[in-house]
Design goal:
Radius of gyration: 28 Å
Shape: globular
Number of strands: 17
Helix content: 40-55%
Structural class: alpha/beta
Number of helices: 30
Distance between the termini: 74 Å
Length: about 800
Amino acid sequence: MNTIEEPQSNNTATTNAPETLAAARVACQRLAPLWPLQHFVAVNPFLGLTSRPFAEGCELLQRMAPGGMQMPLNYYRGKFTSGVITDADLESALTHARQILGVSHAEELADWNVGRLKAVLHEDSRGAGEEQMLSIAEAVDRARGTSWSVAIVESIARFCAAYFDEGQSAWRLPWKAQPLFAAWREAASLDASFELLGLPDFRKWVSKLPSDAESAITTSLAQLGIAANAAEDFLHKQLFTIRGWAGYVQYRVRANRMHGRGDDSLLHLLAIRLAFDAALLAHFDGPALREFWPVNPDASTSDTLAKLLLQFTDEYAWQRQLTQKLRVASPTQPHALPARPSVQAVFCIDVRSEILRRALEAASPKFETLGFAGFFGLPIEYIPFGQHHGASQCPVLLTPKFRVRETLRAASEADEKLAWKRKRLGKRLSYSWNSFKTSAISCFSFVETAGLAFGVKLVRDAFAPKTPHHGHSQTHRPELDLGDDHGVTGIAPEDRVQLALGALRNMGLTNNFARLVVLCGHGSATTNNPHGSGLDCGACGGHAGDVNARVGVAILNNPTVRTALATHGIAIPDDTWFLAGLHNTTTDEVTLYDLDLVPASHRGGLAELQSALLTAGKRARRERAALLGLDCTDPALDDLVTARSRDWAQVRPEWGLAGNAAFIAAPRSRTSAANLEGRVFLHNYDHRADTDNSTLDLIMTAPMVVANWINLQYFASTVNNAVFGSGNKVIHNVVGTIGVCQGNGGDLQTGLPLQSVHDGTKWIHEPLRLHVFLEAPRERIAAILAKHEGVRHLVENGWLLLFAIEEEGAALYRHTAGQWEQISS
């Protein structure tokens, strides 16, 4: 049997180290970060591609993976047959394509018309296997019928799981203190598994690799003979084969960069992946392999273009339906409210809030609802009672500016210290007990002695499940005063004023305050759900928003803060009381906090609010029932919905943000009469009060971008769940508390489970790009686009679709190819 030749650096391939490393860094930038399960948040899986047009991204990913980022033709065939897509939508899509694809596709588009598009709908999608860019491992597998690509992914995944483990494993990897590539080199030089699989002298090959990752990349790329102009795409493909762990490493790199620390771990992971391919080529190179590698497919195929045109068609159909709702809903006069509402409820812009907001407004004409990012403008890290470290309660685009610790609401200093000690002791005992259960030796005696007791627990969980713990205890409160830790925790009085000022201005609540104002965060109560944090508030970093609501209320009810706000032109009446709440999106129940602090003068209004919330919750549950497979007329509906949240075997406790398709920043009067079916992010915005454009700037750079991330994650998990989603959640296994894998091994899964977007018979989520409607003058929107390159890329490259509402809803414009195009009524 042939042995592997030693790594060479004098190959005829490109050996220009700076050029090679530059290509490697560009390839690393194409990977989107993957947040760990503790604060799993939606992320745009195409984040590293937004600097290029959407169509180009489709073409690139079609070469990277089977299916790319497009739906099959039969999906659109069903829509056309059912009448959702019309001939007019097909014509509009072709016109749009000619405007935005321009010269690069002009020749191809000249042959397309409505008739040809309709004919394509009745064709079968052609396989794209021969057009795929292949790694060496994939090429060897095709040439020899082997499974090297699977073996490599599993090997790298096992190593990364041990290296990045965050406490799940009882035995630590001996080389965790070393850089990633160095640690792998030590481990791989002792691992004989690849030699047993048929790759002789692999350990010797590894030991002769350069000791640093950058030199190893240069050496391996030279050994592979990759031309300089093909290096970026090839290296992207290398990372794409291990995109789950690459995404997690990218998350760590990003987090370190945001805190001013350098991190080349993703380059190290790339060096590891390249080493395997270089070793395979050295051993298996020959005519049989060269039939499959290298592959240099065309930049575009008619199949890719056809699917793109049909996607545009589907989006035009949705745009037509939504704009009709907005035109019908837009009143000629502002929405009629009492001179002073009895209640104002500020909800997160999350699409699930839209249903409850409509239901609450219907419950009482004296209620007004507003939409604002669910962290309520409070970039905090919240430290739960009994812990030394907390979690970021703000969008992942931001870093927390303040740390707030949790304390007991009513306790002496001595009682609090005693409670703290008990909490810490409980955590230590829990840790020790878990170590006993999972260690390599005591786990056997544990099963023998305690196994039956856990059988009782299993039966109880199946037939009499507990209510999932949700939200922070009513017996605790946020401590805003600066601690005795040199100001590390707490919020200074002057900072509280600025936070209150920013929150009220940006949510458009600067006058006409109600007697009761509710800041209502949201979270999801589910059980046995590794991706549970993905159902919580994305604006709160993948956590429930009750924390931010309680901190906001503590600030806004403070007399000193109110006095300072008055000097800035915001006069909160003495009889206005702020309340914190939490919307459980699984059950549509709302919990209100610290009710014993509500003044006696407000008890009547509080009772009215609580009654309205109960009525609104029932109404929202009835609206959502059909999608959950429940009968909205069933008298036991409320109990059935609650039972789903407690059922450890339930794969669809709620639908999350499935169906999201639009983001609207406008006065509530623009949408209050429309049933938007829980598919639209709603942000209150009045451009007349935003004289310096600061609020519009904030909306376009933060909540709009976060909504786009959510939209594209659901998009990707639908168009190609096998590549961008996480498959069947029934067979998920948690890896190192970081992520999940399918079955007992393999790469980390990057997106949403199939059950989050499909009900078993049909797609619940429609893969549409986010339609963003901003009620503001076009020139003001354009000024912000000119100012922020990242946002400009999203718009001009087509990763979201932008519209401007003018003349009090009478005029609507679409941003196309850098120009504003008026949409006729």
